[in-house]
């Protein structure tokens, strides 16, 4: 049994909160550059240039790329051979968020109760997903999620008969309805299968995957590519001012489901698709 | 070519702006988002005075990140505007001439923009580090308890904006997308 002290978890979560908000991933930067080469609509090109410049300023000046530094969504993969010592794992994660959001000058956007709406002033609680894995590894991923895009996400329980066509239709409808609101170019995370809750989790998890990696199953790889083309044919464009680049990538995650169902969740992310991870 | 506009935003200046124009805005503007809007409109409904004078002013929908030492403000990009839609017409009636945000507006806001001769600008969503460099000073002037949502007075220089809805109600989200789709045909 490997022992892992909570102080290590606090330190790691703190650093990941800051890193994710200051440094845009290389894969997104690569997508921006590809988009710039393909885009020939002047306003759209101009906006892509501004987004690249913004990511550079954030990185060089160590400041958040976006003022919505999000609600901290934390994914934990914990080996079944790991014993967390020195305190509560959940409290350690929240303490890491508390320290990261305070020391990193990140905006505290979380209210303690959804109706009473009093700001907790330290961005806790984080939304935490735990996964138990074999071995003695411990992986933390922090994905700050802004709500301009989160608010545009949707879930639908399709019928099995709706099939791939039904999925495509629903995804396009969600992206169309979102229009300029989620700060396009967007990254589209799609969860298909499982139950109501599982589909939503998968859609969120899909956003963690690099935009340069496709789904390993050819059926879904094809669907990711077809959906990306169809979304970009909508013409919404960067910031919704028209253009080719509405989405940078479509990532799909799937799970087995019930004979009677076809749950589909669409989690939209803005161009700042932030996530930082560490193995400890 | 960007049009340079300085505050205050008079009716005359509003008239010169058309959907799709790129604008560099200089001068004093206010910040306010969801919770601050609710308080302002509650005051109006109670027949009380507002803590800010809105005539010929502009409100920027932004909740900035905390400023580091020596900087006037943290990162400061626009938040999504539709959440302010239910409050906006009442503020336009008070003489407010412009709003800065991002994303779609409802029909009632577009109607009020036309009636009052105002303008809706978009700032580039997410380009918050870049826009923060345009903010030369920031001061909380109301609702400090709201934290990121407090009303601030900002002095901005050459803040890059795009006119989305002009005083005639032309909507650049529709125009821009139609123009792009035409290039595909």
- How would you sum up the global shape of chain A? globular
- Between the first and last Cα atoms of chain B, what is the distance in angstroms? 28 Å
Order of helices and strands of chain A: EHHHEEHEEHEHEHHEEE
Q: In the residues of chain B, how many domains can be counted? A: 1
Count of runs of 4 or more consecutive helical residues of chain B: 6
Give the C-level CATH assignment of chain B.
Answer: Alpha Beta
The profile of the biggest β sheet of chain A is: 4 strands, mixed
Low-confidence stretches of chain B: none
Radius of gyration of chain B: 16 Å
Low-confidence stretches of chain A: none
Oligomer: heterodimer
Strand content of chain B: 25-35%
Q: Name the CATH superfamily assignment of chain B.
A: Fe-S hydro-lyase, tartrate dehydratase beta-type, catalytic domain
Which descriptors apply to this entry?
heterodimer; A: 280 residues; alpha/beta; Dihydrodipicolinate Reductase, domain 2; four-stranded mixed beta sheet; 8 helices; globular; B: 185 residues; fumarase; five-stranded mixed beta barrel
Question: What does this 3D model show about the protein?
Answer:
- Chain A: This is Hydro-lyase, Fe-S type, tartrate/fumarate subfamily, alpha subunit.
- The complex is a heterodimer of chains A (280) and B (185).
- Chain A has 280 residues and is an alpha/beta fold.
- Chain A folds into two domains: 2-20 and 65-145, Dihydrodipicolinate Reductase, domain 2 (2-Layer Sandwich), CATH 3.30.360; 148-278, no CATH class.
- Chain A is built from eight helices and ten strands.
- In chain A, the strands form three sheets. Chain A has a four-stranded mixed sheet.
- In chain A, helix 2 (26-38) packs antiparallel against helix 3 (42-61).
- The longest helix of chain A is centred in the first third of the chain and has 20 residues, at 42-61.
- Chain A starts with a strand and ends with a strand.
- The mean pLDDT of chain A is 97.
- Chain B has 185 residues and is of the alpha/beta class.
- Chain B has one domain (3-184): fumarase.
- Helices cover 28% and strands 26% of the residues of chain B.
- Chain B is built from six helices and seven strands, in the order E-H-E-H-E-H-E-H-E-H-E-E-H.
- Chain B has helices at 11-15, 34-45, 88-93, 107-116, 128-132, 172-184; strands at 3-6, 22-31, 58-60, 98-101, 119-122, 135-142, 151-165.
- The relative contact order of chain B is 0.22.
- The mean pLDDT of chain B is 96.
């Amino acid at each position: 049994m490997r022992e892992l002290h909570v102080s290590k978890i606090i330190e790691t979560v703190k650093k990941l909160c800051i890193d994710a908000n200051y440094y845009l991933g290389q894969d997104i930067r690569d997508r921006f550059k590809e988009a710039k080469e393909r885009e020939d609509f002047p306003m759209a090109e101009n906006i892509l240039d501004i987004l690249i410049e913004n990511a550079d300023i954030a990185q060089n000046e160590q400041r958040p790329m976006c003022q919505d530094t999000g609600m901290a969504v934390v994914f934990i993969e914990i080996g079944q051979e790991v014993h967390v010592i020195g305190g509560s794992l959940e409290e350690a994660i929240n303490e890491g968020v508390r320290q990261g959001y305070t020391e990193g000058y990140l905006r505290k956007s979380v209210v303690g109760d959804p109706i009473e709406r009093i700001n907790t002033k330290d961005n806790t609680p984080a939304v935490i997903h735990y996964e138990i894995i074999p071995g003695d590894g411990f992986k933390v991923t922090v994905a700050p999620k802004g709500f301009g895009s989160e608010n545009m996400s949707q879930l639908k329980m399709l019928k099995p008969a709706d099939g791939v066509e039904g999925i495509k239709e629903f995804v396009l409808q969600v992206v169309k309805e979102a229009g300029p609101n989620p700060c396009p170019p967007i990254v589209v995370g799609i969860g298909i299968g499982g139950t109501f809750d599982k589909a939503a989790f998968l859609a969120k998890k899909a956003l963690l995957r690099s935009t340069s990696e496709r789904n390993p199953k050819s059926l879904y790889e094809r669907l990711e590519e077809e959906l990306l083309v169809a979304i970009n044919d909508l013409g919404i464009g960067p910031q919704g001012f028209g253009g080719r680049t509405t989405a940078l990538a479509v990532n799909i995650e799937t799970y087995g489901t019930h004979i009677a169902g076809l749950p589909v969740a669409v989690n939209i992310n803005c161009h700042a698709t932030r996530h930082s991870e560490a193995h400890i | 070519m960007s049009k340079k506009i300085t505050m205050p935003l008079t009716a005359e200046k509003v008239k010169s702006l058309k959907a799709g124009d790129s604008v560099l805005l200089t001068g004093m503007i206010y910040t306010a988002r969801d919770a601050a809007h609710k308080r302002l409109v509650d005051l109006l409904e109670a027949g009380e005075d507002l803590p800010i004078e809105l005539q010929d002013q502009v409100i920027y929908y932004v909740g900035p990140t905390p400023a580091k030492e020596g900087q006037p403000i943290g990162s400061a990009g626009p938040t999504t505007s539709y959440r302010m839609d239910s409050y906006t017409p009442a503020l336009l009636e008070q003489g407010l001439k412009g709003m800065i945000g991002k994303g779609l507006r409802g029909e009632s806001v577009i109607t009020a923009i036309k009636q009052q001769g105002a303008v809706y600008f978009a700032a580039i969503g997410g380009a918050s580090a870049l826009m923060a460099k345009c903010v030369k000073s920031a001061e909380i002037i109301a609702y400090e308890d709201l934290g990121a949502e407090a009303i601030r007075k900002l002095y901005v220089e050459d803040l890059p904006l795009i006119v989305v809805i002009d005083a005639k109600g032309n909507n650049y989200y529709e125009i821009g997308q139609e123009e792009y789709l035409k290039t595909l045909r």
